Amino acid sequence: MRVVALLWTVGFLLKEAQAWSFKNGIFHNSIWLEQAAGVYHRESRKGRYQLTYKEAKAVCKYEGGALATYEQLEAARQIGFHVCSAGWFDKGRVGYPIVKPGANCGFGKVGIIEYGYRLNKSEKWDVYCYNPNSKECGGVLTDQQKIIQSPGFPAEYQDEQICSWHIRVRLGQRIHLHFLEFDVEDDTSCLADYLEVYDSYDDVSGFAGRFCGDYLPDDIISTGNVMTLKFLSDASITAGGFQLQYTAVNASHKDFLH
Ligand SMILES: *[C@@H]1O[C@H](CO)[C@@H](O)[C@H](O)[C@H]1NC(C)=O
Ligand SMILES: *[C@@H]1O[C@H](CO)[C@@H](O)[C@H](O)[C@H]1NC(C)=O
């Protein structure tokens, strides 16, 4: 197993928490709600804005779905689906769903920000897919305790999986990850298949570790009440997969303050 450094500070999440709403004991942050009403966002494995229209369609089809229609995207937006990346959707349109107005994304507007019907289908964007029956792979988790596992576990996971789990517990709590089983294709830098852990509600900031191989990673405890896990498998060689449990812990608990 290779582990990339785990370093983070407390201040960031406290600051972030103030920027978002707090309702019914749950910290609500609609940003990065990856999946809503069967709609989800995908980017190419090569990174952002790398998919032609044809490739975008293939990505959705591969996962058993189809390009989202405008109506599906809007329905998802209305329950909090907010993504700051332009993607293809049905009929060669490009746009992205914005819930929370911001200067840096969506020009301060709320709604589906549209670039319209693209005449040039070779342009490269991300994609919005629709699949109401998508497999158990990722999602937004708000339970106090839950098992997270690779798709199909205990069977081997499949090639070309991308799953993101966003964990959000009560404000003031932390998330304790405890690995139960771990077997992910091993390679020197964990570039083929891996599980990544982020001490934040997205997979941009708060990188806490990338894991592959077959040693059980150590427990990980978040600094705030949100965490993101991302599992990715490439086009070849799979393995047994992983299973872990998260538990919400009260942040004031002395054992976790070190
Ligand atoms: C269509 O878009 C691609 C990718 O951005 C670009 O390389 C190509 O020149 C464009 N074609 C036309 C006719 O504008
Ligand atoms: C955590 O805090 C909540 C509210 O402050 C309290 O009701 C609960 O009993 C605490 N749980 C533990 C395990 O200490």
TrEMBL record:
| Disulfide bond positions | 60-129, 84-105
Gene Ontology CC: extracellular space
Query: Which PANTHER family does its entry note?
Result: CUBILIN-LIKE PROTEIN (PTHR46908), TUMOR NECROSIS FACTOR-INDUCIBLE GENE 6 PROTEIN (PTHR46908:SF4)
Please give the name of this protein: Tumor necrosis factor-inducible gene 6 protein
Q: How does it assemble?
A: Interacts (via Link domain) with inter-alpha-inhibitor (I-alpha-I) component bikunin. Interacts with ITIH2/HC2; this interaction is required for transesterification of the HC to hyaluronan. Interacts (via Link and CUB domains) with ITIH1. Chondroitin sulfate may be required for the stability of the complex. Interacts (via Link domain) with various C-X-C and C-C chemokines including PF4, CXCL8, CXCL11, CXCL12, CCL2, CCL7, CCL19, CCL21, and CCL27; this interaction interferes with chemokine binding to glycosaminoglycans.
Q: Which UniProt keywords apply?
A: Cell adhesion, Disulfide bond, Hydrolase
| Any GO BP | negative regulation of inflammatory response
Q: Report whether Heme shows up as a keyword of the record.
A: no
Q: Which GO terms describe its molecular function?
A: hyaluronic acid binding; hydrolase activity
SMART domains associated with the record: CUB, LINK
- Keyword set includes Metal-binding: no
Q: Which Gene3D superfamilies match?
A: Mannose-Binding Protein A, subunit A (3.10.100.10), Spermadhesin, CUB domain (2.60.120.290)
Q: Name one Pfam family in it.
A: CUB
